[in-house]
Amino acid sequence: QQNEARAAGRNLPEGFVLGSATASYQVEGAAHEDGRGPSIWDTFSGTPGKTWNGDTGDVACDHYHRLEEDLDLMAWLGLDAYRFSIAWPRIQPTGRGPANERGLDFYDRLVDGLLARGIRPVATLYHWDLPQALEDGGGWPLRETALAFADYAAIVGRRLGDRVGMWTTLNEPWCSAYLGYASGAHAPGRTEPAAALAAVHHLNLAHGLGLQALRDVVTGDPDYSATLNLHVIRPEGETGAEAVRQTDGLANRVFLQPMIEGGYPADVIADTSGLTDWSFVRDGDDVVIRQPIDVLGVNYYSTQRVRLWDGVSERQQADGHKDVGHSPWPGADRVEFLPQPGPYTDMGWNIDPGGLEELLVRLHRSYPELPLMVTENGAAFPDEVVEDADRAGGRAVHDDDRIAYVRDHLAACNRAVEQGVDLRGYFVWSLMDNFEWGYGYSKRFGIVRVDYDTLERIPKDSAFWFAELTRARTDSAGGSAEHPPPNNP
Ligand code: GBH
After folding, report:
1. ipTM of the predicted structure?
2. DSSP per residue over 440-464, as a string?
3. Measured between alpha carbons, how far is 343 from 404 in angstroms, rounded to an integer?
4. NCBIfam families recorded for this chain (predicted)?
């Protein structure tokens, strides 16, 4: 496995960035400390029945208090870059008004700690933890939320803008809009398809306004980006192409087109005309949203297969369950998501590295000038801790399945590069096990295990593999990740 990791590392293009990713609400904990205000995820996870086991991010991985230990882990992993998100309610407890200095101090320490270890800080402004007060005022379906986001971006940019290497405005606005406001599976848990479409627009607007605000105040020379969870959707049967058109519009083109080309796809507006007339889009918004970006972040996990429901068969959802409850796809009522062939991760998502290659190549063909970055890719598996006398601490997690997942997706990245795709890097999701949203702590995505009783970090085999991978490029002479990770007795 060590040799294999080294081989995988040597295949990557010169300067390819290897990193790991997390998000504030999923790892930080310290939910009520240093002036942090409540976010929609505090409210949602605190509402009975919304998350697995009633889990919340109150403590999470306690990353807020274990920053130095986690930074040392990242250094041991040999990360080129670390992708984290900033909790808006730490910076502005009610989403508006003056900055909370103690909140800014935490990210200041994080950024400095990364730079001291030679790791490039990649900061996301919004990874789903909207200040609750802004949701109380209407949330993402309202224009005011996008305007507030620009003020927040300016505050953060002013404080960290001399040191952050890459800024990302939003993480996966698809999830914020459709899971937050249509299916209700994510905070704030609303099930209003028309509001979800208004949220799409105001998230896009926030992206544009946020970039403008950052550019006004940042003194460094960072890359600017957004991260999308673009869907790879394959057609099934005669009606497949039409079903792909509808879902590709709602999932992909409704973000890509305004951000990169300007304006909304006419077919999406037509498909959703029964829900909204899109009058929330004002003159000039298109120009604001279409700000130049230096790189597009792509989060990729699995693929989907669709056709139009024939009205007779039992309609399926993506996960193969019966279609119950509210759909995250406004206006695509006839689309049926078919179960995908395996193998699957613990999320029930199919493993399909070819989908990543396909997606990167498609994006490159559509936007040949736009560099790409895989800002998330990874897998949940039900890992087990076993005794292992050869390891520091006497325990190990043998997650061969995760190693294979990452290896095969990196190989897909290489194939895309061979086809001319300007792919700049890859971030594994995630640095450590964390709060997996509606699934609480039941799903483990980390390359480092978190023991939620003791909050101890135990590097899994995939972490050793990743450390070997990063070293393969810097140190072709040898050297090894064999030496024990930090903080292990
Ligand atoms: C990302 O979301 C998030 O950015 C991150 O915070 C999260 O922890 C991580 O991934 C793992 O979930 O239900 O079959 O239609 C990924 C979100 C992944 C959304 C797959 C929709 C479609 C699968 N998504 N997905 S299906």
Report:
1. 0.92
2. GGG----SEEE-TTT--EEE-HHHH
3. 12
4. BGL (TIGR03356)
